[in-house]
Here is the input.
Amino acid sequence: MTKNRNNQRKHTILLSGLAVGMLGFAFALVPLYAIFCEVTGINGKTYAQEIDDTPAVLQVSEREVTIQFLGQVGRGMPWEFRPMDTQLKVRLGEINLTSYYARNRATQAVTGQAVPSVSPFYASNYLHKIECFCFTQQLLEAGEEQQMSLRFYIDEDLPEEIKTLTLSYALFEVPELEVASLTLTNNLQ
Amino acid sequence: MAVTADHNIPNRSPLMAFLSRWLLTTNHKEIGTLYMWLSFVLFFIGGAMAMVIRMELFQPGIQFAEPLLYNQMVTLHGLIMVFGVVMPGFVGLANWQLPMMIGAPDMALPRLNNFSFWILPFAFTLLISTLFMEGGAPNFGWTFYAPLSTTYGPPSTDVFIFGVHLMGISSVLGAINIIVTIFNLRVKGMTLMKMPLFVWTWLITAFLLVMVMPVLAGAVTMVLTDRHFGTSFFAAAGGGDPLLFQHVFWFFGHPEVYILILPGFGIASQIIPTFARKKLFGYHSMVYATASIAILSFVVWGHHMFTTGMPLTAELFVMYATMLIAVPTGVKVFNWVATMWRGSITFETPMLFALGFVILFTIGGFSGLMLALVPADFQYHDTFFVVAHFHYVLYPGAIFGIMSAVYYWLPKWTGNMYDERLGKIHFWTAIIGVNMTFFPMHFLGLAGMPRRIVDYSLQFADFNMVASFGAGMLGLTQVLFLYIVIKTIRGGKKATGRVWEGAEGLEWTLASPAPLHTFETPPKFPTPEEDYPRD
Here is the structure.
């Protein structure tokens, strides 16, 4: 009977461990999902690339594609936000510069974060951004306006069938946590 | 009730005695009864919400329920039926039956058993109380997709999250208890491959519960921190992704739908051999089929997300994996049919419900195959076709499974036979009601009626009216079911120990009603050549 008791205890502990492990797995899904999307380019996510990664000399190809730019603001985001060029014809491997216009229409400072998305999604791994306002959060004072620049090139390995790609930015107000914690620190001081 | 004598402590008011008996009980039969009654009560509450939905959809336009109320009804109906009716119903059956079927005196962890039950009334009181809160109850559907539940959720979402946490704790503890019981308390000679199939299916279900309920807990926790603690798991603004929610949710959600059906498979595998008076055909293949369904359930969650822009390769993989599940499921259906082949079948109420289960669950399985096809799913997604599909697998599947189990084992529990004539009336009204309610929804969905919307365009009016009439019939006949159960508890023809002529298994070697404490000395498990001892 003691052997049975010990077995019961062992099984209970093992199963509780399994349950706790699965709770951990649920949270592990978050980074796993991000890595999976980054590797495969699913969801049209494009990721920040360090300038060092860019080859010193780029092969500029003859092939031309059209790249379209879109900009939207999230719910409650009080900014005006639009691309300066809605459409560019670019050659593969050529470094291009364009910019987005942003103006804070609110009466207080607002921090924004732009989230890029490329369509068709499998083109996202071929669009390389060297410099982008989406790499960092942008702070605009009340009424302040700004031209935010974007420097990019398109990989020459871009699949043949893609003639047009679309780069879309959704601009969100940064959740108040950081702003709140800053205020708190200031008050404490 | 002589069996309760040892629980009555003198010099206590009857109320205190009653409360301490039911609040503090660690007896698997009493806890089983508590689970069954909780499930029954919530069945009527969730059913009343379904009536509000069907009343509203009786005609086009907005009659009874404003859109906000309608959405709350849809959400709570789903949550209550899944977490409050089917799961506690099956756990109640497991509590009553598992120890008796494996020759054990009780569950392995009786106090934990009491704890896992008594969490549930609080969890559902919390959930239902959200109806009376400012901003109303959760209104985003039982799947609580972000951002509907994060950015746009009403304040009561936090109460809902806490309720789901409690339910999750209860299910995980209950499942651990069941696994430990099955692994350690089987009678000598009952090897794993000699266990009754209801025990097998519950063992596998319990493993699914231990593995996926924590993932649900993780999902609601992330929703909570996104709502209040500034994290951005599902908010694009902070670098998160709303689509991630669907991946986490359906990683839980797909195994969950098998949690809702596998014990039903076990019940059918107990009842059909009894009334066909033959041994179950293909016992081993039944066990392997159940296990492979459970394993496959972990890799097919993507079929809920075909229209979210998944890459083609993932869609193809998920499509084939989903269709593969039809193979073990088909094995089970053919085994049930082969069990009945050349049997001397009688059609008592439990058998009728089991047959209704097999036939109508198969229809639900077929519409599931249609939904598994990626191109077809693009048309069916979020239409009433999906509603028809999952109600066919859940109502005549899970719920009929529980009902047939109740009719089958009620004489063992109460010592009285139920009223066979009323039972048959209940069955026929239920099966006509089920088909009248849910079959037209197939046509509505194929014609393009979206789900979860309070109003619809005129061309859907006729089928909706038929469905609403069917729902009324289906709802009313459950009142008859309640009457039958109460009548059986109060009296009726005395049941024998074996109850059914063709019944096999340790639970039938006990007297009816089963004494409060059974198998305190382990019974003898018969070798294949022997019969079970008869009273």
In short: Residues 524 and 530 of chain B are 11 Å apart (CA to CA). Chain B touches chain A through 39 residues (CB under 8 Å).
